[in-house]
Design a protein that fits this description.
Elements: E1 2-11, E2 14-24, E3 29-33, H1 40-47, E4 55-60, E5 63-64, H2 70-73, E6 76-79, H3 91-101, H4 107-117, H5 133-145, E7 151-155, H6 163-178, E8 182-187, H7 190-196, E9 199-204, E10 207-212, H8 214-221, E11 224-229, E12 235-240, H9 243-251, E13 257-262, H10 265-273
Parallel strand pairs: 3-8, 3-9, 6-7, 7-8
Antiparallel strand pairs: 1-2, 1-4, 4-5, 9-10, 11-12, 11-13
Helix pairs in contact: 3-4, 3-5, 5-6, 8-10
Length: about 280
Amino acid sequence: MIEINDVSKMFGEFAAVDNVNLKIQDGEFLGLLGPNGAGKTTIIKMLTGLLKPTTGTIYVDGEKMSRNNMKIKKRIGVVPQYTNLDKELTAYENLIFAAKLFKIKDYKNKIEELLTFMELEKHKNKKAMNLSGGMERRLMIAKALINDPDIIFLDEPTVGIDLNGRRKIWDILKGMKAMGKTVLFTTHYIEEADYLCNQVCLINNGRVFKKETPEKLKNDLGIYTVEYFDSEMKTNYEYFKDKDGAEKYISSIEYVSYTIRKTTLEDVFYNFTNRKVV
């Protein structure tokens, strides 16, 4: 289990992360959902020991996380937001380099397994600089899995990837979930968190203000959303437990146009913050 206790991170007078308390159970697939600048990457960096909290503590199975705690670091895999590949090395050579860092002896079979899992076996001799964005991202995930970690942190793993590439990465992440890995990933793609996660944390201005299943978050707000455009040229949102309630509401108001649709995690986030997840 990962425990984040009263953790804050200050940069000068700016609180990038503000008094976060969070528990992540073994085998949990948790999405940290929020807009750019909300504090997601800072939390990942503290969880992986790259940044030291200004206040508070982080524990992994009772062990305090720090930059020098190699016992924990051997158990985690990290996919950063920006590439950590050597562009001059081939896909295969990048994985050899990662394996040797972890002193993995029988790495050849492991690398072949990962290349197959990532659908990169036909591209293993290409230099990283010649891979597409989606292939590069999948290679980064393979690199993070080289040591067979129990816990995997991914920071915006599908950012800048086309839809087809994103869906391939989704399949990889679902595979990790099926293996029982503990996965925490950050995203501002709503459908990604909704589709993949069994728990979602909503974060804004450095504070985590909700942790729940996607379904419960939506159901608590209201299964149906009425989105209508009024005569003042403003879009409004109202939420209802059933479609009958939504239709009755529409019949009682004036509008220019409207739609009744299923509530999304975007609606949940916007309802709490008046801010879109973009």
